Amino acid sequence: MTVHARDLTAPARSAAPGGTAMAVGAARWGGRSTLGTRPGVRKIRTSPSDASRGSVMHGTARGRDEPVAVVSMACRLPGAGDPEGLWELLAEGRDAVGPFPPGRWDLGSIYDPDPRALGTTYAREGGFVEDIDAFDPHFFGITAREAAAMDPQQRLLLETAWEALERAGTVPARLAGGETGVYLGMLGSDYLSGLSLDQFNGHVGTGSALSVASGRVSFILGLVGPAMTVDTACSSSLLAVHLAAAALRAGECDQALVGGVTVMTTPQTFVEFSRLRALSPTGRCRSFADGADGSAFSEGVVVVLLKRLSDARRDGDEVLAVLRGTAVNHDGRSRALLAPNGTSQEKVIRRALELSALAPGDIDYLEAHATGTMVGDPTEARALARVFRDDRPPGRPLHLGCVKSNIGHTQAASGLAALAKVVLSLRHERLPRTLHAERPTRRVRWEDSGLRLVQEPLPWPRGERTRRAGVSSFGIGGTNVHVIVEEAPLPEPAARAGAEGAAGAGSPDGPWLFVVSARDDAGLERQAARLAAHVAKDETARLPDVAYTLARCRSHFERRAVVAAAGRDTLLSALEALADGRPDPALVPARKHLKGKLAFVFPELPPDTGAGADPAARPEAFAAALARCDEAIRRRTGRSVVPVLRGEEEASGPLADAARFALGCALDAWWRSLGVRPDAVAGYGAGRITAAHVAGALTLDEAAALVTGHGDGREAPDIPGVPELLGERFRYFVEMGTGPSPVQADADAAGTAVHVVGSSLDRDGMLRRLAHLVAAGISPDWSEAMPAGSRVALPTYAFERGRYWMSPTPMVPAATPEAG
Q1: Which CATH number fits domain 68-191+202-487: 3.40.50.2000, 3.40.47.10, 3.40.50.12780, 3.40.50.1980?
Q2: Is 369 an active-site residue?
Q3: Is 593 marked active-site?
Q4: What are the tens digits of pLDDT across the range 662-720?
Q5: Active-site hit among 369, 436, 556, 693
Q6: What range(s) does the Ketosynthase family 3 (KS3) domain occupy (predicted)?
Q7: Is 409 labeled as catalytic in the residue annotation?
Q8: Does the predicted TM-score (pTM) go above 0.90?
């Protein structure tokens, strides 16, 4: 019979990002008020100008005015592989537009400076991201055949969504079965548009379907919240933000991944807009400039993670910014299908202000749509002037800018790219300049418009007033979206979490455990190199916080290596060794994971001495368990076992057994304080009594009576030996002693592979043994093993990208003028 440990569950194993999704209950309502508002009562948030307006709005606490927090962002945009790179580009005023990538298209056959030349483009520059043919399908459990048939937009969304979750400190596997929504803005793909029918392989349809893009993200992550892909052309991703915010406020999901993506696999967009004469010959968006000569197209992907602000605060998330209100409308019947409608643009902005309970004077900055066309930009500016010029405080114009001047028009991703710029500007307290606009367009009367183009970087510091910005995005089909973004509230006062009190994670001065994990050994090396570069560059990062983030805010995959380090140099040396495939004294290399359960084994060995020499060197759990056992033994024998464990007295017979028992119970408590809990216990000889007690089969008094010979003939319960557990697929064993035990010999005799880890009587040694257990595949409860710390920014997963691409058949030659 196997005696299983009480109140225990199997150690958590790292899960793949996919898996079977499990349905959960309906959306939760009530139980959580918003910013102190009673359920059922709408509290109007006021700005300095609200009092005079007497706005009245009705609804519930979780209603349309529920603030929505941006808790994470990830991106790949021209000239920027992440939000940090995007800010550097903006702050430095760089232009990321450049020539068509070599090998993407045959420039000689598609470029012609003559706008009348059919089948060609008169522009030869744009904004591009690198390696759109590269992907890591193995990471997501996708076959190479399916990966090649997937639209690169879907691939970018998968990787960037994963990065957004990691940057939020969210372990994606924990979201499986949860009500996380996925809202994507995406255009129809021209990838594989030239395939012949005999090249369809069963994956082409799903690989190119817009609906599958959001569905695939939900499927891979096991999410059961709403999933949808929207296409309203250039306003797609900002419309996705609007829909996600509405769903969060309505309780339809608990959080939402919101993304926008465009990848240009063919020059179709350039050729089509060349025919419309709407393309800038130089490939630059000259937003609001007198020299504006047309739009300029680019590609990229942006994904943000949104939560209700109250939930973000509850969960301890870092709030990057707050979405105060969003609105959407349509141009209706304008003078032409593709012509902008200034009246509709004005209305959507006023509607967003109304829903936010704000006045135009509450907005400091507006990130405009501004594609650089001679008609569109002046129309937008005049609409803004009608909204803002009559309600501006003296000397405080509405500042105006556009990220498209830096990176081009990223089409379906453009709204989120604009939102990302605003969030970064709020956090860095600076407004970057708008490029190519040294001379603002003469089609706008700037002097009495209430608007001012940001032509040089401007400070935007946090102060007494809440800083706010508007973001506009207008689709070519007439769908207009406006979002009002607000600075993140200051964190609530709280003591900074640190390593102090981290019982199992090392002393306040270290060492700490740094877990590095990947799908395979090559990925482990890449991840270690990336982390080493980050730690070397960011000297301000506190090592306890780095350890905390790696342990509790990152996924732990099939391959795990662990570094035990108390100093930056030791950590860097071990990470560099791991990256190079070399050993290092501080490095516990990855070990092969075994499919099996974990047992604590209590051996029959001479009592370890030195256990009580320095109580301060032991955690509280160890000392408390030892004291309880010693008290129970003294009640039976009148003698303490502490002098025996200190090596001050020799003992044999019952007192020696009692010392073994007390030490075994103390080590058991120590391991449990590290978040390691067994599925069962085993014992050898007198160790069976200790095993029976920690499993709950004997009370402390009953166990003390047996080990001291005062059991009045009572026998210890039947406790299994290691050979029995081996037959029940136990493959991990932790020995509750510091000397050798028969566990490995029993496993060798059975021809069974096992991982055996001993115990230690000092903190550093115990930490090293925990590292061996983690590297072998056991996941402790990190909330106990690493209870204190703060999440810090660390590199995201180092994907192993290979080339996955299907070559379509040649495109049909362009039609001749005679053919129309």
Answers
A1: 3.40.47.10
A2: yes
A3: no
A4: 999 999 999 999 999 999 999 988 889 999 999 999 999 999 999 888 767 677 788 88
A5: 369
A6: 65-487
A7: yes
A8: no
